[in-house]
Design the sequence.
């Protein structure tokens, strides 16, 4: 007999089935023992009566989180014993065979209510025993639904003629305004790779290569002080397109998000997300600041309604802001962002007055994406490097490859990156991105499950030519 998932037994009333999973809870009602078996799909009530003594004794020995396999008949529950809160609440299994596959220690926290989100448990403990924390139905569902959203994205991008391309993780620093994570090279002592803060330059090089429409579900790494909901590594949907204007990028992203929301609502009838603005609202940066005092306004009509999705584009950004500490111009987006053509004459005299082709996407007060039309001419790119204070040597060392590429027929291009973790957090009504990531880092950047970072053995350091000074 093939094993079934708990929810699938609903269609098997009167038949024999085989299930496997974990002991979720045990209740003794007089002579009868009830065991809730839990698997990936949910809970199923198992019933044991004293008639079969050996079976009954084994059932009596079961403890929470033991792993069991059972065979038995699916019955309708007696009248008045139904549980309308569970999808399997109308049925139960009269067990004929029970096998204990593995025992379990008492878990450090209870994996109670199917819907419990774990907020009652200390976060460090949850992350240390993440494999137990993930046993909660809510967490399993979040990961399953994350997979579904990624699949919707991949299918959509494929239909729109995009090619998914992997870019290296061991690469060179590509500045996105954060510190790099560095990886020492053993073969080239004293030299380092940097983990990508984003695949920005690589996707631009793919446009120079003629790929025209690229995307990637890309992992990005930024060594920042961890504030609030930031993670040192996170996932973004990274997109780049050739021969496009800004409006083409905005249209594509709108179409994608409308598709995601529609499919999610169709797949899960308990979900009823509604778009506040369709098409998405567009605001100029200045207008947003003047009207709402922020470039991330939360424009839901009813802020208490978790089902409302208010997407807003913020456009017409200044190219630069003045960094008074360092006495230089800093790019508002990144240094590859194109100035608007009408403002090019101002670039030399009044750089702060130049507008750029930056576009940020805001959802319910969170920035969930950003991008721009890029510079594709060497002279303009060089000018920007100069304005942000890079010397000619620094420019050559850090960006020589990009400038050279621009000399070999770079097409006009632009793109965007959308933060997947944050988007999912909002779609799934979660308060933290840690709820939608399988193994997130703790608030101080540690992987508590694997215990990283950790010291390494002296041999490894010697091979790398590294001495720890403190
Ligand atoms: N690379 C940018 C980022 O990660 C997004 C983009 O400009 O496409 O924020």
Sequence:
């Amino acid at each position: 007999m093939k094993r079934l998932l708990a929810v699938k037994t609903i269609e098997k009333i009167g038949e024999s089935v085989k299930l496997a999973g974990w002991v979720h809870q045990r209740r003794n009602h007089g002579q009868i023992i009830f065991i809730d078996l839990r698997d990936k799909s949910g809970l199923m009530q198992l019933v044991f009566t004293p008639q079969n003594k050996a079976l009954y004794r084994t059932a009596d020995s079961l403890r929470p989180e033991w792993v069991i396999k059972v065979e038995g008949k699916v019955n309708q529950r007696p009248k008045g014993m139904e549980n309308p809160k569970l999808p399997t609440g109308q049925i139960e299994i009269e067990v004929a065979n029970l096998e204990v596959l593995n025992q379990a220690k008492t878990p450090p926290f209870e994996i109670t209510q199917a819907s419990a989100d774990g907020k009652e448990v200390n976060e460090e403990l949850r992350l240390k025993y993440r494999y137990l924390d993930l046993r909660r139905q809510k967490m399993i569902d979040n990961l399953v639904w994350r997979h579904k959203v990624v699949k919707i994205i991949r299918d959509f991008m494929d239909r729109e003629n995009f090619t998914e391309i992997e870019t290296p993780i061991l690469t060179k620093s590509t500045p996105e305004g954060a510190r790099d994570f560095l990886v020492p090279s053993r073969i080239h002592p004293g030299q380092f790779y940097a983990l990508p803060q984003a695949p920005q330059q690589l996707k631009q090089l793919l446009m120079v290569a003629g790929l025209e429409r690229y995307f990637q579900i890309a992992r990005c790494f930024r060594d920042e002080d961890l504030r609030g909901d930031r993670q040192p590594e996170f996932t973004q949907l990274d997109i780049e397109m050739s021969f496009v204007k800004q409006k083409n990028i905005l249209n594509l992203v709108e179409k994608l998000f409308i598709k995601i929301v529609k499919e999610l609502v169709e797949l899960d009838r308990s979900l009823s997300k509604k778009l506040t603005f369709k098409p998405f609202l567009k605001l100029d940066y200045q207008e947003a600041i003047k009207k709402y005092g922020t470039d991330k306004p939360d424009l839901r009509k009813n802020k208490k309604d978790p089902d409302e999705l208010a997407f807003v584009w913020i456009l017409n950004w200044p190219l630069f802001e003045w960094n008074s500490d360092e006495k230089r111009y800093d790019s508002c987006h990144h240094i590859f962002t194109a100035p608007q053509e009408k403002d090019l004459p101002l670039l030399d005299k009044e750089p702060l007055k130049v507008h750029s082709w930056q576009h940020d996407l805001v959802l319910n007060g969170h920035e969930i994406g950003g991008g721009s039309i890029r510079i594709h001419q060497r002279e303009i790119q060089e000018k920007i490097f100069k304005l942000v204070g890079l010397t000619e040597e620094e420019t050559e060392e850090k960006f020589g490859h990009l400038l050279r590429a621009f000399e070999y027929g770079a097409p006009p291009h632009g793109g965007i990156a959308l933060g997947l973790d944050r988007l999912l957090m909002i779609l799934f009504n979660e308060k933290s991105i840690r709820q939608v990531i399988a193994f997130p880092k703790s608030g101080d950047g540690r992987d508590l499950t694997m215990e990283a970072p950790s010291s390494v053995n002296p041999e490894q350091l010697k091979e790398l030519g590294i001495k720890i000074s403190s």
Observations:
- The pocket of aspartic acid is lined by residues 176, 198, 200, 370-372, 415-417 (CB under 6 Å).
- The CA atoms of residues 250 and 359 lie 8 Å apart.
- DSSP finds twelve helices and 19 strands in the chain.
- The longest strand covers residues 16-29.
